[in-house]
Every structure is written in C-alpha cells, then in structure tokens.
Amino acid sequence: MTNLHDTWRLGDLTVNRLGLGAMRLTGMPWDEKPKSREDAITVLRRAIELGVNHIDTASFYFTPTRSANELIATALQPYPDDLVITTKVGAGRSRDGEFSFARPDQLRGQVEENIRQLGLDHLDVVNLRWGAAMGKEPGSVAEHFGALAELREAGLIRHLGISNVVADQLTEARSIAPVVCVQNRYGLTDREDDALLDLCGELGIAFVPFFAVTTSIPGAAPGPVSGEAEVAKVAAAHDATPAQIRLAWTLHRGAHVLAIPGTGDPGHLAENVAAGGLRLSEAELALLDGVGRG
Questions:
Q1: Which residues are CB-contacts of 3 (< 8 A; sequence separation ≥ 6)?
Q2: Residues in contact with 80: Cβ distance below 8 Å, sequence separation at least 6, in sequence order
Q3: Which run of H or of E encompasses 48?
Q4: CB atoms near residue 137 (< 10 Å)
Q5: Structure confidence at residue 131 (pLDDT)
Q6: Which of 136, 142, 161, 278 has the highest local Cβ count within 10 Å?
Q7: Choice among 13, 40, 52, 61 that is catalytic
C-alpha cells in the first residue's frame, strides 16, 4: 500500500516516495516550441504545496532557452527545509545537445556547476550516471565513483547514488562509499531490472525508476509498449488514466521504490500526485505483472 506520504530515507534524509522529475520542465527536443516558463514554475511550486519533497534534476536538463536547475532555483528559493534535491553527474551535454561522459577529474566541475545553478552550498544526493548512451555499459565504476566519494568527504555532496548500472557495478560502488539509491530505467513493460530492484530492497537502498510512465507512450522512450488492454481495464476500475495505473504499479513494487514522474504541465502533476493514493488489489497486480513478464 502506498500513497504520497509514504516515506523512505536517503541516508539521513526522509523523502515522500512520490517525487518529481525535472527533465520535462524545460520541454523535450521534439517539442514544436519551448515549454511555458510560467507553467514550469507553477508545477514546481504546486508540487511543494501537494507534499512533494524530492526533486530529481541535472545540469544537463536544458534546452536553448530553458534550464531545469535555473527553474528550480527561481521557483523554490528559499528552499523548504525538508526538500531533497537529487542530481546526477557523469553524463554531460554540450550547448548543441551532444552527450558525452566525463572523466573522473571532470566530475568536480559538474558537481560545482549543479551547486552554482541551484544556489546551494552542497548537494543532497548525487547519482553517478554511468555511460552516455541509454543502454547500460560494462566496465568498472571505481575511478569515477571514487572521485565522487572524495567530494563527499570534502563536504560538496551529502549522499551518493548510482544510475544506469548492473548489480556488479552497484557492488563495486558500495565497496567504495555508501550508496543510498539506484536510478535505472524501469517500468511495467520494461522489467529487465526486476532482480536489481529486489536486491536494492534487500540492501535497504532506494530504487528510483526513470521512464516508469514514459514507456507507455509510443516513441517517447526505448522499450516495448504493450499491455494497453490490461492497463485500461484496471484504469477503468479506478476511474484513473493508464499512466496513473503504471505509476501506481511501480510504487507497489516495494517500500523502497520511489517515483519521480516528470511533467511540465500542472494538470499532469495533479494526476501524478493522485496516482500515489491508488490502491491496486492483488488480482489487479497479478494481471499487470503478467503483462510485464509476458
């Protein structure tokens, strides 16, 4: 059973399990025109009013005319005492939008850039985003994660997480410094990380899916789109949207599973928050699980 006010601890920081992803605040590359700045600021302020106290962002969430970090700083400073802002480094983007992956010696600059854009003196949680591509990449994370661990010791970072990784990379990172969260692509019809999600629960580490809802939109994210009929059936029973059902299913996967659905639309924000209060029956969960594993 989950709702917005169910909580989880990221180290010594307590967050409500339903948070907000900032990527869509700026609009997406395929949008015909920039997203409304006023709508983005409204979404951020309304999210706080609705009880959201966990926002996921990155300095590489930007378009030519919008920056997610700048929008967050403009809308929410002075920040609420209980607000936890999670960001990520490792991946980066040039001004023309090309992605690249930072060397270990470049991570401090990325951390400092996030601190500067957000108007903070340190970052609450920083995820090492492994690999620049959408798919997972093999290799040791030790040098990069070790560089972030040094910044944690220096007081620039409070807690560390890791993103887009496999179990062995999580194990390696944990041998260097505490890991409070794993952020990987995951959703009802994107179940590659079922075992990793379970492992995080056993270890007391938050599992934070991205694209948990987006996988229901053809072309919006990698992965298959299936199970529309089953999701629609459950949605009708709850007078909910299919996206709300996919989000509710994600939260039902475990008490350690957080949700960070992103939106730049105030109406979609309200729907996402409402999804945190949906109660799915055992029969409905079984139906939906069958979709994901079929």
A1: 18, 276, 277
A2: 48, 53
A3: helix 37-49
A4: 14
A5: 82
A6: 161
A7: 61
Angle (nearest 5°) at CA 196 between 190 and 197: 75
Counting as low any pLDDT under 70, the low residues of the chain are: 1-5, 29, 97, 132-134, 214-226, 292-294
Q: How far apart are CA 201 and CA 55, in angstroms?
A: 21
Alpha-carbon gap, residue 103 to 116, rounded angstroms? 20
Q: Is the pTM of this model over 0.90?
A: yes
Task: Give the per-residue pLDDT at 204.
Answer: 98
- CB-CB contact of 188 with 249 (8 Å): yes
CB 290 within 8 A of CB 69: no
In our burial notation (b when 16+ CB lie closer than 10 A, e otherwise), range 74-108 reads ebbeebeeebbbbbbbbbbeeeeeeeeebeeebbb
The pLDDT, as a whole number, for residue 175 is: 98
